[in-house]
Amino acid sequence: MLRIENLTAEIDGKEILKGITLEVPDGEVHAIMGPNGAGKSTLSYALAGREGYEITGGSVTLNGQDLLEMEPEERAAAGLFLAFQYPVELPGVGNANFLRTALNAIRRTRGDAELDAMQFLKVARARMKELSMPEDMLKRGVNVGFSGGEKKRNEVLQMALLQPKVAIMDETDSGLDIDALRIVADGVNALRGPGFSALVITHYQRLLNHIVPDRVHVLADGRIVTSGGPELAHRLEAEGYAGVLDEAA
Q1: pLDDT in the model for residue 93
Q2: 118 pLDDT exceeds 90?
Q3: Which of 25, 44, 164, 169 could form a disulfide with 83 if both were Cys (CB 3.0 to 4.6 A apart)?
């Protein structure tokens, strides 16, 4: 379970998160929607421990562990995964080597044996087939020359290999066409079940047509102002934020 209690955070001295309280139980997928500048990406980066995002109050636990006391790599080892809105390119770093190194680092923390190159390729190729990814993507630099859809599928491949306890997806649907969106959603849905939960940050209902959330939360001005079931996302798609925000005021 991911439990966030009265979380506040700032960037360069400016308060962005103003008291976020949220629980994502094991096995559930929750969506966060909200207008631009509401603090959605700030929340994802603060949870992941990105430099420059200063936590000024509150607490965050992952299955009872204090997430805020951990370094970013320790958060990943504890089971937290962040899929970026804009995945970065890593020229000179081979995708296969990057993925295998990350997977073996996680396996060590779990007490599992590391995979050699052949074992890794067998696992990676199976996951890539599920995601409709060509195998030659393993031979390229991390995200170098990848299309927007390929970058997002590569993120989902990382998630499928690492099998996190909680995945935070920061506008993963950004820049995806219909086919790529479905493939990415299928990759997330394949992980759904006990021991896995996700926090999906999105502007649009279209992603939630494929990844149906258990709960939807509206974030505005650094706070969760209202929550509801999947029907809340449909209402936002049809009416926009104004009515919902007026009711929550």
Answers
A1: 95
A2: yes
A3: 169
Strands (DSSP E) found in the chain: 2-11, 14-24, 29-33, 53-62, 65-66, 80-83, 90-94, 141-142, 166-170, 197-201, 215-220, 223-228
Q: What residue numbers bound the domain in which 228 lies?
A: 2-90+164-248
pTM score, two decimals? 0.91
Rounded Cα gap, residues 32 and 59, in angstroms:
19
> Rounded to an integer, what distance in angstroms lies between the CA atom of residue 202 and that of residue 206?
9
Residues 187-234: tens digit of each pLDDT: 888 888 898 999 999 988 888 999 999 999 999 999 999 999 999 999
Kindly report the CATH number assigned to the domain that includes residue 168. Answer: 3.40.50.300
- pLDDT band with cut points at 50, 70 and 90 for residue 24: very high
Confirm whether 139 is domain-assigned. Answer: no
Terminal Cα-to-Cα distance of the chain (whole angstroms):
29
Strands ordered across the beta sheet of 215-220: 80-83, 166-170, 197-201, 29-33, 215-220, 223-228
3-state secondary structure of 30: strand
Residue of 30, 27, 83 lying closest to 217 (CA atoms): 30
Distance CA 172, CA 201 (A): 8
DSSP-derived pairing of the beta strands 215-220 and 223-228:
antiparallel
pLDDT of residue 196: 93
**Beta-sheet pairing, 166-170 with 141-142:** unpaired
User: What is the model's pLDDT at position 228?
Assistant: 96
Asked if residue 91 lies in contact with residue 40, where contact means CB atoms within 8 angstroms, the answer is no
Tokens of 246: 């007026």
Per the structure, how many domains does the chain have? 1
Reduced to 3 states (helix: H, G, I; strand: E, B; else coil), residue 145 is coil
